[in-house]
Write a structure and sequence with these properties.
CATH superfamily of the largest domain in chain A: Ferrous iron transport protein A (FeoA)
Shape of chain A: globular
Structural class of chain A: alpha+beta
CATH class of the largest domain in chain A: Mainly Beta
CATH architecture of the largest domain in chain A: Roll
Number of strands of chain A: 6
Oligomer: homodimer
Helix content of chain A: 40-55%
Strand order of the largest sheet of chain A: 3-4-5-6
Bound molecules: manganese (II) ion
Chain lengths: ~210, ~210
DNA sequence: AAAATAATTTAGACAAGTCTAAATTATTAA
DNA sequence: TTAATAATTTAGACTTGTCTAAATTATTTT
């Protein structure tokens, strides 16, 4: 039905779509998939032919409901496999993403269904991202970006937006993993920083830029 | 390193190699992979270039030690995934093979290692086939083909050689699964048949031809 | 409103893997 | 041992996904 490559394109387009409803630009897809713009144009035409995206020459693409459903089914598999790798096989949270990139393309709805049941129908993956349900519905929590918090107080780290191993390792070394409780004790409007305390350790400074990734 | 296609060729050549040390013929590989002889010749040249097989024009191939190691590592993954699918995800033994054909190509030795540990270091897969160890060593039991048994008596079904869903379903309906105890109560030299009793049921007739698949 | 710059698409090529049809080599039969 | 048959390889073509370089269209700058 859909090839591994098509699935990766649709996933990238979907991710670039969420948050803003503008068209996704060729260059953005190329950047996201580390491929050339020429290749993206070629693939976009194929996906358009299959009614997975709406394509307007020189103006990027919009993903269709059909394409979105495919993307969400791959994302569902990806996140379920990440839970499996971490909970069942005891991988660390910075190691699961690359493996899930391969496992997500094993094409069996029955497998996904049974994996889901075995894992106890998890709602979030190890990075705090919600796992879409069978119908492609995403039940998002009231998660908020650290950079958007305006009140001091206690918070729970529910997830991260940057999935790179180096960043995840950095956070873990600081003692910050999903579920961690931390307090914002000081916010500085001028130098774009906040001071936070977590897990009985000494106060630490976080730049707003970093905070955006929460 | 090796592509999925190369891995499938090496697996097929390995399987066709075991039992006799003649060269594996182009047509045998083509038959096994449901592909044309022309395609096999092309791929054989590539594998020969990579020193995975020794190729003599018009006379088939012999798998090298290097090629055999790759094949055994894929077969190890395949059988471990089959155990996982059956033991952990509760698939039936006739459903696991096709899924394992996809999962076996997920390329991570660490994943294989952890899966092995999680499953409790199984030595045989759901069809009774031995799981090669990390070094590519195959610890075969003293299994013997049903067609080669000459004495009446009690036996344990340790595995099957035909993995097709239809055959596996047929056996299960008869009450025969790995671990089943059965007795050979009569052997007929002339019409190539034997009468066996299993699991408290009435005697059943098995043709020698069928017996060969055990 | 042109000119300069940036983004996108097209043209043409390549690698992997596949196919059919034709040519070649091996095997079997006469 | 030659002729017929069977198996294998080569030739040439096709698909998917990719690339670079050139042409086209959009956007910014002046
Ligand atoms: Mn991930
Ligand atoms: Mn994740
Ligand atoms: Mn199998
Ligand atoms: Mn098996």
């Amino acid at each position: 039905m859909t090839t591994t490559t098509e699935e990766n394109y649709l996933k990238a387009i979907y991710h670039l779509s969420t948050g803003n409803q503008d068209s996704v630009l060729t260059s953005a897809i190329a950047g996201s998939l580390s491929t050339s713009s020429a290749s993206v144009t070629d693939m976009i035409k194929k996906l358009s032919e299959k009614n997975m995206v709406e394509y307007e020459r020189y103006h990027g693409v919009k993903i269709t409901r059909k394409g979105e459903k495919v993307a969400l089914s791959i994302i569902r598999r990806h996140r379920l496999w990440e839970v499996f790798l971490m909970d069942t096989l005891k991988f660390k949270w910075d190691e699961v993403h690359d493996l899930a990139e391969e496992l997500e393309h094993v094409s069996s709805d029955e497998l996904t269904k049974r994996l889901d049941a075995f894992l106890g129908f998890p709602k979030f993956d190890p990075h705090g991202d919600p796992i879409p349900d069978t119908n492609g519905k995403v039940h998002s929590n009231g998660q908020v970006l650290l950079s958007e918090i305006t009140k001091k107080g206690k918070y729970i780290l529910s997830g991260v937006n940057d999935h790179s191993p180096s960043f995840l390792q950095y956070l873990e070394k600081k003692g910050l993993i999903p579920g961690s409780i931390f307090s914002i004790v000081e916010m500085d409007e001028f130098d774009n920083s906040m001071q936070i305390i977590f897990s009985n350790k000494s106060p630490s400074l976080l730049a707003k830029k970093l905070a955006k990734t929460f």
